[in-house]
């Protein structure tokens, strides 16, 4: 039997989408590979996986090789809580300051670079792994952190300001922000369209099971991160896992801004698997 490999985000933000697959829906012909977004980005391009959630900006950088699955994302309307810039200064005070960016997400890094450019702020940027507060040195003026590390670590012991990137985007555009989308390799979609359709059905059913059992997901997330259930409930209240027309519009606006700031080399539109 051929076994197809699908990526799975290792952070708790995608738990509602994968709940059903984690609890009995996973068929024998499908294998899930759990990794941070940056690893999934690399694996979809190297053909180690054929379907996966990936950083939205990474899709834009590799859109000729990928198609977007309809109706799945990790997105927010305002605060997202798990994508933050921790800083010793307000945003406008970071010119020529030393900022480290997590290597875990192309989208978060691209978004903060775009915001810096639009604000005419030119910090000194360094990209590295940030999984805990120990990965940030004292001489750093700010750090971009994502995922579970953003939720669990005592960043206020080093930094004065917590700047939520979802909130920054919403104030700029009044639109939702899309951090991750589900994609399929274009060549795989052309050769195995029925498999892709079957995976979409599975993801839809899995997500439905997830929201039917959101209490269990909150309990599991709180246990995994050693945080209060009330905090995890608030976190999930800020997250959306669909990909409607407004989110497509918002994502294409993000790509437009990235192109205008020369972070993207060409204009990109969302191309859905059909």
Largest sheet: 5 strands, mixed
State mean pLDDT (0 to 100 scale): 95
CATH fold naming of the largest domain: D-Maltodextrin-Binding Protein, domain 2
**Total count of strands:** 11
Query: How many structural domains are formed by the residues?
Result: 2
The neighbouring-strand order within the major sheet is: 7-6-8-5-9
CATH class of the largest domain: Alpha Beta
**Fourth-tier CATH superfamily name of the largest domain:** Periplasmic binding protein-like II
- Helix and strand run: EHEHEHEEEHEEHEHEHHHHEH
Q: How large is the count of helical segments? A: 11
The portion of residues assigned to helices is 40-55%
CATH architecture assignment of the largest domain = 3-Layer(aba) Sandwich
For the termini, the CA-CA separation is: 26 Å
Strand content: 15-25%
Low-confidence stretches: none
Principal-axes geometry comes out as globular
Could you tell me the radius of gyration in angstroms? Answer: 18 Å
Keywords:
single chain; 274 residues; alpha/beta; D-Maltodextrin-Binding Protein, domain 2; five-stranded mixed β-sheet; four-stranded antiparallel β-sheet; 43% helix
